[in-house]
Amino acid sequence: MRLVAATIMLLALAGCADTTSRASLARQQLREAEAVEAIYDQALAAPSFALLADKVNLREVYHRGEAPCAAIKEDRLPTAEERVALRQWASLRQSYLVKLDDILLGEPSGSSHAKRLIAQFDVVTDNALRSQSVLIEKLADGDLTYCQFAEFDKEWTENTVRQIDAIRRELRQVAAWEYGTRGTAPNP
187: pLDDT confidence band, cut at 50, 70 and 90? Predict the structure, then answer.
């Protein structure tokens, strides 16, 4: 989820840029982010996470209209062994998201309006990260069942995507306005 959100913002920012080097930097950042995501996906395929299969959506990808609990075969509290794996996932996930932030969300550039929107994006994603980390912790502590976790996680994910989409639309409007006032075309 975080890579998708960061990629959307990265591409929108490249559209605000007025130099080829900024668009080139955006493409390089995207390649680096994809490499980090591949490492994360490989780590999630480790045998230590196999016992969470059919219990937790480790990639936190939810499809519209899909019930978040549909893939959960047995809704229950995690076992002691599963709690250990959940805590390992939480640590791995945190590390992955920090690496993405380091790659994709550097010092914002552009107009003050664009910088404000980028800061707003960072607040939205940080709030989502903290909230979802608390959910994982509650699941690992045995305070939530797998289905309760999935329902809350999907709700947070969808809410975050809606907020990010609104920021993206506004950022595109800023890019169009800046294009009109500077007379330079934004890079694709």
Answer: very low
> In the numeric block, which tokens belong to residue 88?
């390992």
Per the structure, the complete domain to which residue 40 belongs is given by: 2-182
Q: What is the pLDDT of residues 65-78, one digit of tens each?
A: 889 999 899 999 99
Does any domain span residue 187? no
Considering its fold, how many domains does the chain have in total? 1
- Other CB atoms within 10 Å distance of the CB of residue 175: 21
Give residue 40's Cα distance to chain centre: 13
What's the whole-model pTM score? 0.79
CA distance 57 to 157: 12
The verdict on residue 188 lying in a domain is no
CA distance 126 to 73: 31
Share of the chain above pLDDT 70, in %: 81
In a domain, 123, yes or no: yes
Residue 44 has what pLDDT? 96
C-alpha torsion sign, points 25, 26, 29, 31: negative
